[in-house]
## 1
Amino acid sequence: MKYKIKFFSKISFIFLFLVFMKIEAQKVELKANTVFLPLAMINLAVEKPLNKKFSIQAEGFISPWKSFHGKNLQFYMGTLEGRYYFDEVMKKWYVGAYGSITAFNIQKWNYLRASPVYDSSGNPEILPDGNIRITERYQKGLAFIFGISGGYHFVINEKLGLDIYAGIGATQSIYKGYLKDNNERYDGANGWNKSGEIIPTRGGLMLTYKFQ
C-alpha cells in the first residue's frame, strides 16, 4: 500500500504541475490553503478562467502524517473542479462541481478510541497478563468523491485575493481495516471492504496570487 500511496502522490503533483505549465498565464491563479499550513499539510491549487463566468481548478492535497497525536492521518488527494461565478470569474460568489480521488491511511472518526478485540466466538480476547486486549483500529484504501461546492472570492488587489469555500460529496471507498497493536486485519475479510457516505470533503481559506 505504501508504494501505491507514493506513486499516487507523485502522479497527482505531476498532473498539477503539467496543468500549470500548459495553461496560459493570463489571469491564472496559484493558491495555497492557509487553514492547513500550520499543520504541515500541503493544499495547493491552480485556477484557470474559461470565459467570463466559468473556470476550472486543479488541486492537490497531501497530509504526510503517519501519526498525528498518535492517530493515523495520511492521505494524498487530487481534485478537479468546475466553477460558475454569478458576477465575474474569480470574483465574489460561485458554485462548483468536483471529483476527487484519495489514497489514505487514516483512523475514521468512529475508530479514534481503543476498544476490545473479540475472537471468532464473540468473546473478548484475554492477554497473557489476564487483561482484556484493547487497541485502536485504522483503515487503508482508496476513495472516490463526487460533490458540489460553493464559496466567495475576495479581491485584495490586482495580484492577491482570498478564496473561502466548502464542499460536500458522495464518497465511495474501498479499504482494509487493521488493528494497531499487531497490524492484522480486524474485519475478517480477505479482500476489500466497501463503504459509501455523504460527508463534507473539502473546505478552507486559500490565499491566491494572480499571474497577469
## 2
Amino acid sequence: MSKQVAVILSGCGVQDGAEIYETTLALLRLDQLGLGYRCFAPDIEQYHVVDHRRGEVVEGERRNVLTESARLARGEISPLDELDADDFDAVILPGGFGVAKNLSDFASAGAGMQVIDTLTEALAGFHEARKPIGLICLSAVLVPRLLDPGIAVTVGHDPGVAGAISAMGGLHRSCGVEDIVVDFENRVVTTPAYMLATRISEAATGIFKLVDRIDELMDL
C-alpha cells in the first residue's frame, strides 16, 4: 500500500489562509513520488477575510476555514478533528498567514502565541510516534508551541520571525530559499518557501526537497 501523508490547510489565500502555490507544489510532489495524501482543515471561522487584490481586510465578511480550504483540495478534505495519526505515515503543513491567524494567534500575539487545540491534538500523535513532520514557510513558527522547544527549524533569514521562534525556546537555523533544515532527532523538516521566494520556481525547489526528505524519513 502507498505511504499516506496528511496535509493540513488553514484556508485559501496567502493573506488569510494557506499559501496556494506552496500547497499546490507540495501536493504535486507527493503525487509525483506516488505518495497518497488527504487534506484536513479546522472547521472554524477565519480570523478575517482579506481582499487579495487590494490587500485590505473586508469588513463584515465571514468565511469558514474548512470550506475555504476545500477550494485548494478540490473538495476532497476532512475536518481536522478527524485526523488520526495512526492512519498516516507523515504530515505536512503549508504556510500562508492562515497559520498565524487561523491555526494560531501568532499574527497578534507574537512570541506569546497559542496554537489551536485541534492542531495540537492532531500533531501529538505524529510526534509521539516519530512520524515525519514537514512545515513550509511560516508554519515553522508553530514548532516551539506545537511540538517541543529546541527543535531546529527555519524561516529563512527573517529576523522578526526567527527572533520570535528563539523567544519561545525554539532553535532557528538560517537557510536559503532553495534548501531545507532537517532535525533528524525529531524528524522535522522545514523550508523557507515564500518567506524568501521571489519566483514560484524558487519555492518549488525547497518544497520538493522537503517532500523528498519526508519520503526518505518515512522509510527509516
